[in-house]
Amino acid sequence: EQFVIQKEELQQLRSQLKLQDQQAASTSAETSAEHESPQLLSDIDIYNTAELTNEQQYEPIVKFFQERQIQVEVNEQALDTTGFFDEIAVQLGDNYNTLRLVSDKIKYIQRKGYTTVKLTLNKKSQKDIKTITRFCKDLYDYSFVVKYFYQKQEKIVRLTLQTAPKIVNFFNGEWMEWFVFMKLLDFFQEKQLPVACLRNLSVKFQNEDQHELDVFFLINGTTPLCIECKTGEFRKDIEKYSVLQKRLKLDKGQFLICAVGLSDKQSQGLTSMYDLSFVNEKNFLQQIESIIAHTN
Predict the structure, then answer these.
(1) Please, what sign has the CA dihedral across residues 32, 34, 37, 39?
(2) Is the pLDDT of residue 39 over 80?
(3) Contact 58, 196 (CB under 8 A)
(4) Contact status, residue 159 vs residue 147, Cβ threshold 8 Å
(5) Residue 4's pLDDT band (boundaries 50, 70, 90)?
(6) Contact partners, residue 125, CB within 8 Å, separation at least 6
(7) Taking CA 81 as the corner, what is the angle to CA 78 and CA 85, rounded to the nearest 5 degrees?
(8) Mean pLDDT in residue range 173-191
(9) Which of 63, 109, 195, 215 might form a disulfide with 227, Cβ 3.0–4.6 angstroms?
(10) Other CB atoms within 10 Å distance of the CB of residue 77
(11) pLDDT tens, position by position, 94-109
(12) How far is Cα 263 from Cα 252, in angstroms, rounded to an integer?
């Protein structure tokens, strides 16, 4: 009888130990998942931080692509906001209708191989002149241009351009990537949504095909968002992006072509025609709102 009693007690003890091991394993898995999940941006100064370059921040995106048999090459420098590219990009994007005069002229002069820009503002309103001269002054303060001079009586701005490749690339279209990236960071910070993010990343498929993606976010660890940023002609690339969207296995609303200067009517029409979502610098956050609404 004692033997039977001891045997039953031993079986109960083994069952308890097994249950404890299972609970411990479950807790460990949850802790690991929490560690790997996207982080909230609430404690980060998004306009002056190198924290986004931390591997732990973008690791969920790397795993997202690995599950699809896609390799990712990360450009950590494109995540560092301690410089002034982000501030100038947001200023330009928020006031594009007024400041495109400056950016277009700089871009044109750069392509011609010259370094001197002259902007005549005598037909502009006082409000626009103030916005333009403040922007040009910031370009000088942040070393985007070598010289800045405003002839107040004649209402003429004179700039001497930087020839550094990073500055040339910025005005050649990279500013739009920075603008969209920073506006999204600000948006998700305000919404207190956990995200992982990458900018200017490269993806390689199993057949060695390689593509660059401008901006990629992973919302709540589950919802992908890919945005291609265009400051010039984009229509010739529509088919290429349609194929890429399918290869990445993204829904239509998760792959955005953000074209600066595109009208709302054009955005709606192109979105109806193709398996991509077309937006502009003013309405792209509305599309993000829609994506979040559908995932909640």
Answers:
(1) negative
(2) no
(3) yes
(4) yes
(5) low
(6) none
(7) 80
(8) 95
(9) 215
(10) 12
(11) 999 999 999 999 999 9
(12) 20
CA-to-CA separations, 115 to 106, 110, 120, 194, 234, in angstroms, rounded: 9, 7, 17, 43, 27
Please give the Cα distance from 257 to 277 (Å, whole number). 6
Euclidean distance between CA atoms 130 and 121, whole angstroms: 10
Question: Do the beta carbons of residue 257 and residue 251 sit within 8 Å?
Answer: no
- Which uninterrupted H or E stretch holds 3? helix 2-36
Residue 125: CB atoms within 10 A of its CB come to 10
The pair of three-digit structure tokens given for residue 186, joined into one six-digit string: 């600000």
* Confidence (pTM): 0.85
Please choose, from the candidates 180, 163, 173, 24, the residue with its C-alpha nearest in 3D space to the C-alpha of residue 94: 180
Give residue for tokens 């992973």: 218
Report DSSP state, residue 241.
Answer: H
Which tokens is 224 given?
Answer: 């992908």
Distances (CA, A) of 288 to 22, 62, 68, 168: 40, 21, 23, 30
* Two structure tokens written together for 233: 């002609």
User: Using one digit for the tens of pLDDT, what is the confidence trace for 141-155?
Assistant: 999 999 999 999 999
Which among 50, 53, 264, 92 is positioned nearest to 178, based on CA atoms? 92
Helical (H) or strand (E) element with 204: strand 195-204
258 sits in which H/E element:
strand 255-259
Q: Find all residues with CB under 8 Å of 135, minimum gap 6, and list them.
A: 91, 92, 95, 99, 102
Q: Highest mean pLDDT: which of 13-22, 28-37, 63-72? A: 63-72
